[in-house]
Design a protein that fits this description.
This protein is an alpha/beta fold. It is 42% helix and 16% strand. The protein has 12 helices and 10 strands. It has an 8-stranded parallel barrel, surrounded by 7 helices. Strands 1-2 form a two-stranded antiparallel ribbon. Helix 6 packs across helix 7. The structure holds 3-methyl-2-oxobutanoic acid (KIV). 3-methyl-2-oxobutanoic acid binds next to strand 8.
Amino acid sequence: MGSLFRGLGFMSTAHGDIKRVTTHTLQSMKQHGEKISMLTAYDFSMARIFDDAGIDVILVGDSASNVMAGHETTLPITLDQMIYHAQSVVRACQRCLVIVDLPFGSYQGNSKEALISSIRIMKEAGAHGIKLEGGAEVSESIKRIVGAGVPVMGHLGLTPQSIYKFGTYTVRAKEEEEAEILLQNAHILEEAGCFSLVLEKIPAALGTEVARQLKIPIIGIGAGGGVDGQVLVMHDMLGITKNFSPRFLRRYLNLYEEISDATKKYIKDIKDKDFPNEKEQY
Ligand code: KIV
């Protein structure tokens, strides 16, 4: 029985069989009112900690372009670079669902390009699904990717890959007309086959309304508490980033200070000839 079901959601480990989170798990969580937890990760070590801690979904976000590579926007990161990050994360995860962002320029051309990029992510990284930004304009691509058996997560509201079109990172869809368009796009994405949707930086009331109208789970980042789950960028949640304090961010650690203090102590110990001591050498 074990071997028959191993490929269908169970993984044997030293701790027994772990049941994998799937897109169906998320759907069932929405139906039962259980909130979904999601964090970004980009490397093996952090993904292993998050997975062991019980996170439901890890997003290998194109925010890697900012927090890992130091770019000002998400635009420069390439498909090959996303695959490298995704491979490291997938190797770490035994339980959670791993979703990978299609980076800017890897899907906007046409639905064939979108499909080829998605297949590369699934085959080369072993991811469980992809995420892409946009509404009606990407619906043909979503249908084609889903048609090939690849789960797709949509992303509406603040879509950082379009930052040069919008010009600012301010709250989206505050006006009724824009809110109505967002709601329409959310329905279009659901009908195109998305299994879930990220809503970024929109009024809480609109987030709640999208979650109420759609059957698929809605994951928010700055979209209020009425959606079906929450996602944060790990560097923000852990306090590694310093100069980024939007209202929606809750910091659970202040790692910048802690790592900085540890580094200063390490430097001092070396300079003082305190490290290594007698017990720390052969
Ligand atoms: O790239 C990313 O980290 C994201 C989240 C902000 C949802 O898309």
